[in-house]
């Protein structure tokens, strides 16, 4: 047949074929556009603060409002029963049909003012109840189809990015819708203003339905009994992670949904805001979500759903406290409320993106999505319905609450605030118990953003992906390392795979500036034992600079490399890791090694490890080495055996510019350690003065030999055996060669200072 690739195309196992990834990516724009249009419907009809204010304007009590709001989620219970039929009819076809139907039913709300004026409040309540019930029933059918469909057409690898992008557009449209709503209600008094907004919302609902028809996937499942998959709701009920997720969501729903529904009334009755300003508070919530949506989504895709969800939940727990203690009937009440709303948007976005991604990617198996999602819709519907009923009745029963309890001003909304404070804490504890392999802990997650320079890191990440040539890529890769932020780990790992050698080389150097991270260490180890010699050498050096003990075994294998340069840098890196257990092996290899470069590497590593038993070997190597730079490095390695490396380096630097004065000052400083009253101390002070005078006049030859003789007169019992070995060698060489090898003078004075007990 010509239509071989249609919406109902079948695979070999008679299951409907999913769209290709390319088709999914093309369909995401239609999904986002549909969600944005649906936001107008949501804000102006049954789900925003406008609907609660509309019911209050009609004269309904808080208990009646709670009852009406409970009808919206309760009908989700039907999902369990209709899920197979929805799958056979097709997720897409069901969703589009139901979405059109629920929007058509919403048009009956336009008749509410006429019903109220003609038949009174009691009939109006019945009319609204039937309208809301019919709407919610059809909507629940659509939601039963929507969740499995969304799981199908959104690729898991970009689930967080998709959710964030969708939220950004819906927040922007919602921002405009709420602004318009506040403007209309501020100028059109009474029910006509609400009718205008509901009409606009219905138009948005029909547009949303039309846009959804262009999304791919959602094909009908074959209806033949032989091809029908057996239902097994018990598998979902036995899934520990899934049940923890459901319980956590239910507790949070019980805590936050009632308070969210009646918050507009709290703002009017207790805080003193007008209806127009109350609607405008949603601008703050939308702005907070819009500003942080991309960051939350990016973090969820990169670091996992769980930490994003838990931090969003933790932030939400602070909202009841902020609302309770905000200034009331004050000129600044509106501005404080807007600030809290902004924070609410931030918290809600973290929870929403993290929990949704966890549900779609980690909790619900794709092969069982119909049953899992049906049970989820039913469960959340029950929880949402109960929460609205309980919230409305609780608020109705607490109307007489007033007074003062310590520093808390009591009012009818205090019980709702209490629920919103306690239940999320229980939810947090339950959600933390969900076991996922993909996520970080809460502490690790926040630590990523606190270490290094996160602001420079974020800007560098953007620049990295915008870099168009090698030079700009090199510069931004260098900057990624300079941030010392773990936010840059993924980009640095990507740079290691760059086809340009210079970029890969720069990435290794940049990684060496980063704090230890298992993924970076593993990547460098792979390069160390790879086939690119130039990168292997610098990778060994980088592992030593990072100082991650996890690299110890890999560097130890590097000692047996076929290339001496890799051996040398592996040895130096092992010294930098500071594990003293490796010292005997390095000392033995140094004793057998004949290559000067490797000898230097072993000596340096032994010095860093403080291997005092190698002092004699290192002194012998110093005696046999001719290169001035190598001799100074060897002297430093020996000096490290007695500690205070900084003192040695400072002496060496100062000797380079003014050797006589520097050595004279160092000799003179030894006088402070001598006992002024003892005969031995007086004699040594005289020798020190003599040496100081000779060196101070610039006579380095005589001064160096004098220093050798002075060392032999020092109180040897004031030094440990290692220092004694070093001083004895220095004295002999100074007397023998004078100023020819100034490093002996530096080493001797350093040892006299650092090794004195």
What do these coordinates show?
The chain has helices at residues 21-44, 49-58, 62-74, 79-89, 91-106, 112-119, 121-153, 159-187, 191-212, 233-237, 240-271, 275-303, 305-316, 319-324, 333-363, 369-397, 414-432, 442-450, 454-466, 470-482, 489-495, 501-512, 518-528, 533-546, 552-558, 564-577, 583-592, 596-608, 615-624, 628-639, 645-657, 659-669, 679-696, 700-712, 721-737, 742-754, and strands at residues 403-405, 408-410. With 757 residues, the chain is mostly helical. It folds into 3 domains: 21-221 and 231-443, MFS general substrate transporter like domains (Growth Hormone, Chain: A, Up-down Bundle), CATH 1.20.1250; 450-621, Alpha Horseshoe (Leucine-rich Repeat Variant), CATH 1.25.10; 645-754, no CATH class. A two-stranded antiparallel sheet has the order 1-2. The longest helix has 33 residues, at 121-153. The protein is elongated. The relative contact order is 0.07.
Provide the number of structural domains: 3
List low-pLDDT spans.
Answer: 1-13
For CATH, the homologous superfamily of the largest domain is named as MFS general substrate transporter like domains
- Count of helical stretches: 36
CATH architecture of the largest domain: Up-down Bundle
The share of residues in extended strands comes to under 5%
Shape from CA axes?
A: elongated
The order of strands across the largest sheet is 1-2
Largest sheet: 2 strands, antiparallel
State mean pLDDT (0 to 100 scale).
83
Distance between the termini: 95 Å
């Amino acid at each position: 047949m010509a239509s071989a690739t249609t919406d109902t195309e079948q695979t070999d196992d008679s299951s409907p074929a999913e769209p290709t990834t390319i088709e999914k990516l093309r369909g995401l724009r239609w999904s986002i556009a549909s969600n944005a249009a649906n936001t107008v419907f949501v804000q102006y009809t049954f789900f925003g603060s406008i609907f609660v204010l509309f019911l209050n304007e009609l004269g309904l009590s808080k208990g009646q409002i709670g009852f009406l709001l409970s009808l919206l989620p309760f009908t989700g219970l039907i999902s369990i029963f209709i899920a197979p039929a929805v799958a056979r009819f097709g997720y897409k076809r069901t969703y589009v049909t139901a979405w059109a139907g629920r929007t058509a039913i919403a048009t009956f709300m336009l008749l509410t003012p006429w019903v109220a004026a003609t038949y009174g409040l009691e009939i109006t309540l019945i009319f609204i109840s039937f309208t809301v019930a019919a709407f919610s029933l059809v909507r629940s059918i659509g939601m039963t189809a929507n969740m499995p469909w969304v799981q199908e057409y959104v690729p898991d690898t970009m689930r967080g990015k998709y959710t964030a992008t969708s939220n950004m557009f819906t927040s922007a449209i919602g921002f405009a819708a709420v602004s318009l709503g506040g403007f209309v209600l501020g100028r059109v008094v009474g029910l006509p203003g609400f009718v205008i907004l509901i009409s606009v919302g219905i138009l948005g609902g029909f547009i949303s339905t039309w846009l959804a028809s262009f999304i791919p996937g959602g094909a009908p499942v074959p209806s033949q009994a032989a091809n029908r998959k057996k239902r097994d709701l018990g598998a979902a009920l036995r899934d520990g992670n899934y049940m923890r997720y459901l319980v956590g969501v239910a507790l949070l729903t019980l805590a936050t949904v009632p308070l969210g529904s009646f918050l507009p009334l709290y703002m009017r009755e207790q805080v003193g805001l007008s209806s127009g300003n109350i609607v405008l508070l949603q601008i703050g919530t939308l702005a907070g979500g819009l500003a942080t949506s991309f960051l939350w989504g990016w973090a969820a895709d990169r670091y996992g759903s769980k930490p994003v969800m838990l931090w969003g939940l933790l932030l939400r727990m602070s909202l009841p406290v902020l609302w309770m203690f905000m200034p009331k009937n004050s000129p600044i009440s509106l501005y404080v409320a807007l600030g809290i709303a902004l924070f609410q948007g931030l918290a809600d976005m973290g929870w929403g993106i993290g929990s949704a991604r966890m549900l779609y990617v980690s909790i619900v198996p794709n092969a069982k999505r119909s049953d899992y999602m049906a049970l989820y819709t039913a469960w959340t519907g029950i929880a949402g319905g109960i929460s609205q009923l309980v919230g409305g009745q609780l608020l109705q029963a607490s109307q007489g609450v007033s007074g003062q309890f310590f520093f808390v001003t009591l009012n009818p909304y205090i019980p709702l605030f209490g629920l919103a404070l306690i239940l999320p804490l229980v939810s947090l504890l339950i959600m933390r118990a969900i076991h996922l392999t993909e996520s970080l802990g809460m502490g690790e997650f926040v630590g990523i953003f606190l270490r290094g320079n996160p602001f420079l890191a974020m800007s560098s990440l953007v620049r990295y992906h915008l870099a168009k040539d090698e030079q700009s890529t090199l510069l931004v890769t260098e900057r990624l390392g300079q941030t010392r932020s773990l936010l840059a780990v993924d980009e640095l790992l990507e740079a290691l795979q760059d086809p340009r050698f210079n970029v890969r080389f720069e990435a290794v150097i940049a990684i060496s500036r980063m704090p230890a991270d298992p993924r970076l260490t593993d990547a460098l180890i792979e390069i160390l034992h790879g086939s690119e010699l130039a990168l292997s050498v610098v990778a060994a050096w980088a592992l030593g600079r990072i100082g991650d003990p996890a690299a110890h075994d890999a560097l130890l294998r590097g000692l047996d490399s076929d290339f001496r340069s890799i051996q040398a840098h592996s040895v130096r890196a092992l010294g930098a890791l500071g594990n003293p257990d490796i010292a005997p092996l390095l000392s033995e290899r140094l004793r057998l090694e004949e290559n000067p470069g490797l000898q230097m590497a072993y000596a340096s590593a032994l010095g860093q490890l403080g291997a005092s038993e190698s002092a004699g070997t290192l002194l012998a190597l110093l005696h046999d080495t001719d290169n001035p730079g190598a001799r100074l490095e060897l002297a430093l390695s020996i000096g490290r055996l007695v500690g205070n490396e900084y003192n040695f380096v400072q002496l060496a630097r100062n000797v380079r510019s003014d050797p006589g004065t520097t050595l004279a000052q160092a000799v003179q400083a030894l006088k402070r350690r001598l006992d002024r009253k003892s005969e031995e101390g007086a004699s040594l002070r005289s020798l020190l003065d003599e040496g100081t005078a000779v060196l101070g006049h610039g006579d380095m030859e005589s001064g160096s030999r004098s220093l050798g003789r002075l060392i032999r007169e020092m109180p040897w019992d004031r030094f440990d055996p290692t220092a004694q070995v070093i001083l004895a060698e220095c004295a002999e060489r100074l007397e023998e060669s004078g100023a020819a090898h100034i490093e002996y003078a530096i080493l001797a004075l350093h040892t006299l200072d650092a090794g004195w007990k």
